[in-house]
Specification:
The complex is a heterodimer of chains A (437) and B (382). Chain A is built from 15 helices and 14 strands. Chain A is an alpha+beta fold. In chain A, α2 packs antiparallel against α3 and α4 packs antiparallel against α5. Chain B has a five-stranded antiparallel beta sheet with strand order 1-2-3-6-5. Chain B has a four-stranded mixed beta sheet with strand order 7-8-11-12, with helices on one face. Chain B has a two-stranded antiparallel ribbon with strand order 9-10. The chains are: A alpha+beta (437), B alpha+beta (382).
Chain lengths: 437, 382
């Protein structure tokens, strides 16, 4: 017998997509039964009360979670999000319902052994509810009480060799795509770079010293499966600077219909016979491809590596061999001044351990942002406020047409005194000798 | 419920404290076939919706069976995932950025039994536990935020709107009939911790009423200068307010005409709540992308200014989303993303084909960049 009636939520149990309501109910039932004889450290009926308060929100059309609440683990300024219910008498099981962010392994690969250990810990010391994963990438432990925070942290670090992730004005937990672990498009080892930078900057991740949040994300190629270009202050996107490798025999096999275009991704509809001219060559944004008899030719110097031809014919075309990554800066979601896409900052840099050159750049950017950034100002907003020139100045990077979509269309250049021969100081009297008042 | 210590000593928090160890190292969790073939993969191929194989230059293969999941998962559910992965995958699996579960299979003969097993498992209410799909030219899982489950600023629920939408789009999760892949994302307020602003279709929670002012408590609960500084349109000013009891307190005033309902003030000051059952609802955006394929990444555009919250299934939202998907499926060229299609046919045609009303709310009036979204050419369609 459920603790609270949830007629509206019950309607979300039907339909084919996995129902989170059914899953929470399943967990509520499991806690009530307690077949594993778990010594629950937070209220047994936490899941029932979560359903109850959610049903109330469905009734009121408003959230019932209070604002903020500063809780955390000793010495860290992030990783825990305080959360309190605004109807604690009705729903005592979720009166405190704090989130803990657990730093996920790069690439989000897991063994069942490790996941089961996480489950055991969170069933005992928390609600047993998680997000796999949160938007930023962390494993999210959803809901526990204040006294359990240190206990969970102690067990994580001592028994599971596992740390918390970032929140607040910190480096947020970096995240990456599947990369070279299972993708032929990856131009660098996203997991290696993600893990290295995550560990190098543990202090920045745990102790808030920034004006606002800061995100790193790592995409292995310009397909951008983790959306780094849209949502990270520094985006690392794999690329190459030599030639697309061509297997002409496989090109022939695509033309002949033996191989399915786009790796079979369009099999749900009959799109007709594959037409390399129409589906690849004519869609190339730089028009740098053509057929020479039965051979596909690419003018690689003109290629902008958009990935379309490679995506369509993965068995015939492969990324180049001289690989590295592009660094883009300043992306963010809309608050406050509208959304911003990341801007090309370093067109090409090698991604090789120990990544000194990359780290040097990161630290120069942080120095500037920490010095000049206002409270709650993202890097992209500072770039807008102080200008791209300032970013070039602080990083010491040389201006490059690859950094802009087009040159400026106004001539209002803020010339610096040292750029103009003779400087700003002039003698008005000398001037007047030749120009009467 | 006896308290059980982990070993942590509250009187001596630094004793044996371990900090800054970071996440577990990724390669502890690689299946052997990944450890052996990392960086050596040659190509991949979709075998059926939700199932694909990667082939290595060593000749090794890895089969991936992808299935959708509500990103909110209980430990019971995760244990069931583990039981499946132990049975078919030697105990290895991964999750995707879009909250899908990927079972990694090194033996081809395990693929079919695994898929059959996954599709048989259902929750008591009847929904699939592990629907296989989410690949290629179809619709993958909807990434989303916390909503009313756990957040203090949402303008709608996240898990519920996503469940309702994916029920409607389910066939396209299980199929690959679209011109290109179509990404749907959901964020329950403008903070967009889910960053939905570059999705083919974005479902966004939005407030429409300026904050209420809890004058009696405002100065006690908030740093007034921070609340003022938080406002992007400078709509908030300091104010002295007379309480009904005759007491004079420091508080703020809000110029409601300048308010864009972003909620940033509430983030800084809990005495300025915005949430409202009638004021809050959903904005639909369309045509964004993050991939650099063919065209540059682009933002989603607002195509429906407001839809009220209709619990528990948001039928007006799901109907509008479905209409956009169907119009795109019918009309776009092969490989063409939704935003590229809208730009090719023109936005006037987009609204016509999707049967959406174009209202004054959809014309940008927020700051300088707005000007450049107005039409500055004689080229348009009747």
């Amino acid at each position: 017998m459920p603790k609270h009636k949830t007629p509206m939520l019950d309607q979300l149990e039907t339909g084919p997509w996995p129902s989170f309501v059914s899953d929470i109910k399943q967990e509520a039932a499991s806690r009530a039964k307690n077949e594993r004889k778990v010594e629950y450290q937070i209220p047994v009926d936490v899941c029932d009360d979560l359903l109850g308060v959610l049903e109330l929100s469905y009734k009121h059309g408003r959230t019932h979670w209070k604002h903020g609440g500063i809780v955390g683990v000793f010495g860290y300024g992030g990783g825990v999000i305080g959360r309190y219910c605004d109807q604690p008498e009705m729903f005592p099981g979720v009166a405190h319902f704090h989130t803990m962010r657990v730093s996920q392994p790069a690439g989000k690969f897991y063994t069942t052994k490790y996941l089961m250990e996480l489950c055991d810990l969170w069933e005992r010391r928390g609600s047993g509810l998680t997000n796999m994963h949160g938007s930023t990438g962390d494993i999210v432990f959803l809901g526990t009480t204040t006294p359990q925070l240190e206990e969970v942290f102690f067990e994580l670090t001592h028994n599971l060799n596992q740390d918390l992730g970032g929140s607040g004005s910190n480096l947020r937990t970096p995240s990456d795509c599947v990369g070279q672990a299972r993708c032929e498009y990856a131009c660098y080892d996203t997991q290696a770079l993600c893990h290295d930078l995550t560990n190098t900057y543990q202090d920045e991740l745990h102790r808030p010293a920034f004006p606002y949040k800061f995100k790193f994300k790592f995409d292995g190629c310009p397909n951008c499966c983790v959306a780094s270009i849209a949502r990270s202050d520094l985006s690392f996107i794999g690329t190459w600077r030599d030639k697309i490798r061509i297997d002409q025999k496989a090109v022939g096999a695509y033309i002949g219909g033996e191989l399915k275009p786009n790796a079979g991704a369009h099999m749900g509809r009959d799109w007709g016979k594959f037409n390399i001219q129409k589906e690849v060559i004519d869609l190339c944004p730089t028009q740098c491809m053509w057929m020479d008899g039965k051979e596909l030719k690419i003018d690689n110097k003109e290629c902008t590596r958009c990935m379309h031809c490679i995506n369509v014919m993965p068995r015939a075309l492969r990324i180049g061999n001289d690989r590295g990554l592009s660094m883009l800066a300043g992306a963010k979601a809309p608050i406050l001044d509208g959304a911003q896409m990341a801007t090309m900052l370093v067109p090409f840099i090698k991604a090789e351990e120990p990544y000194d050159e990359i780290k040097e750049l990161i630290e120069k950017i942080w120095d500037w942002w920490m010095e000049e950034g206002k409270n709650r100002e993202r890097l992209g907003e500072l770039m807008k406020r102080q200008g791209f020139h300032k970013l070039l100045e602080v990083t010491g990077l040389k201006p490059d047409p690859r950094m802009v979509k087009e040159p400026r269309s106004n001539p209002y250049i803020f010339w610096k005194e040292e750029e103009v021969p003779g400087g700003w100081t002039r003698d008005i009297n000398e001037f007047r000798k030749l120009h009467k008042r | 419920m006896a308290f059980i210590s982990s070993g942590y000593d509250p009187n001596n928090p630094m004793k044996d404290r371990i900090t800054d160890i970071g996440p577990r190292k990724y390669d502890e969790f690689y299946p052997p076939v990944v450890a052996k073939n990392k960086g050596k993969w040659l190509y991949h191929e979709y075998l059926q919706p939700g199932v694909f194989v990667h082939v290595s230059e060593t000749g090794d293969e890895i089969y991936t069976v992808r299935c959708g999941g509500a990103r909110l998962m209980s430990v019971s559910h995760i244990r069931e995932i583990c039981e499946i992965a132990d049975k078919y995958c030697g105990g290895y699996l991964r999750f995707t950025t879009r909250n899908n579960i990927e079972f990694l299979v090194s033996k081809k003969e395990n693929v079919k039994p695994l898929v059959d097993d996954l599709m048989k498992r259902k929750f008591s209410g009847g929904s699939y536990k592990f629907p296989v799909g989410g690949t290629g030219a179809g619709i993958s899982n909807i990434v989303h935020t916390q909503g009313w489950i756990h957040c203090h600023t949402p303008a709608t629920d996240a898990s519920g709107t996503v469940k309702a939408t994916l029920d409607v789009l389910f066939d396209d999760f299980r199929n690959m009939r679209l011109p290109a892949h179509l990404r749907v994302s959901m964020a329950c307020c403008l903070n967009m911790c889910g960053a939905v602003h570059c999705s083919d279709i974005a479902i966004l929670g939005y407030h429409r009423k300026p904050p209420m002012l809890d004058h009696e408590y405002l100065d006690k609960m908030c740093e007034i200068p921070l609340a003022i500084a938080a406002c992007p349109t400078a709509a908030i000013k300091p104010a002295k307010v007379d309480l009904p009891g005759g007491q004079k307190v420091n508080s703020v005033s809000v110029n409601s005409e300048r308010c864009m309902f972003c909620g940033n003030c509430y983030t800084m000051c809990p005495a300025m709540p915005l949430a409202d059952d009638v004021g809050d609802g959903i904005v639909l955006m369309a045509g964004g992308k993050v991939s650099n394929r063919i065209s540059a990444p682009k933002f989603s555009k607002v195509v429906v200014a407001f839809i009220p919250n209709e619990m528990p299934r948001w039928p007006t939202v799901t109907k509008a989303v479905k209409k956009i998907v169907e119009a795109y499926a019918k009309d776009a060229h092969k490989y063409e993303r939704l935003g590229d299609w809208a730009e090719r046919i023109g936005w006037e045609r987009f609204f016509e084909k999707c049967e959406l009303e174009f209202t004054h709310h959809l014309i940008d009036d927020f700051r300088d960049p707005a000007y450049f979204t107005w039409r500055q050419t004689t080229q348009f369609k009747f």
